[in-house]
Amino acid sequence: MSMPEENAPKTRDTDQVLPRPDEGARRPERGEDTEMGAKLKAAMKEADLSREDLAGEG
Question: Where is the composition biased (Basic and acidic residues) (predicted)?
């Protein structure tokens, strides 16, 4: 007879566990671009778009 999942012992040794954030990672300051943010700004500039162009109304 198998054990129901909710009664199974808890473990962190499975593939289903989300990785913990890197403790040494630095979070960007407010207003400071991340790598993805810099790429997005460059792509928007190339496409001649601004944030206001993409803002939805309502």
Answer: 7-58
Q: Are the CB atoms for 37 and 29 separated by under 8 Å? A: no
Cβ 50 vs Cβ 44: under 8 Å: yes
| DSSP letters for 10-55 | P-S-STTSPPPPPTTPPPPPTTPPPHHHHHHHHHHHHTT--HHHHP
> What is the per-residue pLDDT across 16-55, written as a single tens digit (0 to 9) for each?
666 677 766 777 777 777 888 889 989 999 999 988 888 8
Q: Which amino acid is at 47?
A: A
In three-state secondary structure terms, 58 is coil
